[in-house]
Sequence to fold (118 residues):
Amino acid sequence: MASSQEIDLRAILNGYADEVRDGLVKAQKNVAKETAEMVRARSPRKNGKYAADWAFKKSDNGQVVYNKSHYQLSHLLEFGHALRNGGRSQAFPHIKPAETFAINEFTKQAKQVIDNAK
Fold:
């Protein structure tokens, strides 16, 4: 039979785990929102549709930032591509800086959540 001390410890640990989980979910959403805004602001603008279509959504593993309707262009714009005349298009690195920001920002926010959990 479990003692009252074991039950109290289990409740405390479960409460801590719930607080950390909730904080990490909130941090994921905040960082995904900021990352989508950053990619949107840094995206090349010919007519603005590509830049405007950056969004984020919940996935099985957290949050994902994606381009809703022009996802095929992302790689071509980020790295450049071969042209018909044998030349190469200019690269517009707009995703990598946002990815670096997201990694650093989520790491920072995750540490804060864990440090501040009771």
The radius of gyration is 21 Å.
